[in-house]
Amino acid sequence: MTVTFNQDGFAENSGEVTVYCTDNQGIYSHTTAEYVSEGGSISAGSYLDAPPKQKQGFIIVRADNSWQYQVDHRGTYYSKETGEKVEHTALGELPDNLTALEPLAEPCKWNGTAWVKDEAKIADNFAKVQAKLIANIDEHAARIYSTWTRFESEYRERQAAAEAFKKANYQGECSRYITDFAKRAGLNNQAATDLILMQAAGLEKLQVELANQRMRKYELKVPGLTIEKMQSIHDDIIKQMDALMEAYNNG
Predict the structure, then answer these.
(1) HSE value, Cβ hemisphere, 13 Å, CA-based, for 8
(2) Could you tell me what percent of the chain has a pLDDT over 70?
(3) Taken in order 128, 130, 135, 136, is the CA torsion positive or negative?
(4) Global pTM?
(5) Burial 59-74 (b: 16+ CB within 10 A, else e)
């Protein structure tokens, strides 16, 4: 039996009816069968009249007690001001500050119709990266150098004593810098002297090489480099510095 409704929307008899449902935004969502008892009404957000057929680029909404087409541009877009992703959730026309065109992988700006390179921003970004990498090279070298020179005055005194004792052909009075070192190392004074001088020469060589690596920071200023190439040079310099530190630790 067909269910009929009075002018107030209440069922005059019981039965099952086909209803057309909307979501909480009034957008048509689905069709279903609903049982209505005599004197009752269909559920909120449901309607008895069928909506029109779906149309590309539009959604069907319930407004002014009828079904209407409304432009639908919901989705992911990009801000023309910042290039950031924006989830557009409102119905209707797309705001002028959004575009479906994805920004370039490098710094860019919207020219009114498309994304183009932002040469000023690219240059500024390059300069900032370059300065950061150069500063990091200096700081890395400084940390290593500070470790090597933590007891520099002691090293210098011990080296001077060893040079004097060797110059005296390992004869005569021997500085405590040598005798104490010899005792701790289990060596005689001559062997201790030679070891002190060898270590001093080794440290000097490492310091010279560390300075050479630090000066390689100027390779980052060679014209025509990309950020990727600068990063590669920086990483190699840091790697070489770390190898020098490892050599120092290994004696």
Answers:
(1) 4
(2) 99
(3) positive
(4) 0.62
(5) bbbbeeeebeeeebee
